[in-house]
Design goal:
Helix content is 0%, strand content 51%. It is mostly beta strands. The strands form 2 sheets. Strands 2, 4, 5, 6, 9, 10 and 11 form a 7-stranded mixed beta sheet that branches. The termini are far apart. The mean pLDDT is 96.
Amino acid sequence: VQLQASGGGLVQAGGSLRLPCAASGRTFSSYIMAWFRQAPGKVREFVGEIGRSGGSTSYADSVKGRFTISRDNAKSTVYLHMNSLKPEDTAVYCCAASSVAYGRYEYWGPGTQVTVSS
């Protein structure tokens, strides 16, 4: 599967942004999907993940209550909805896919930059 995240940009603190990640290749609904982010000088950080049907989600504590992940299997797209953005959310965000299990992501797409100004 090939993945491409988009929708990044510059937003003020407290604002919102939605990042789509479009997939192509094998049947999208067969993949568990996740979002990760990497800030300058920091290691890559797990943001959250969503099950194959969209009925199960989990999030990092740092984004819980502010970020939501959803998916549209008909459009082969997973979304990261980000609200109440903080300057510390500034990072490159990318999506990943697993055909195996939660936490075992085999496929990665290039990221999109999100910058939150204070």
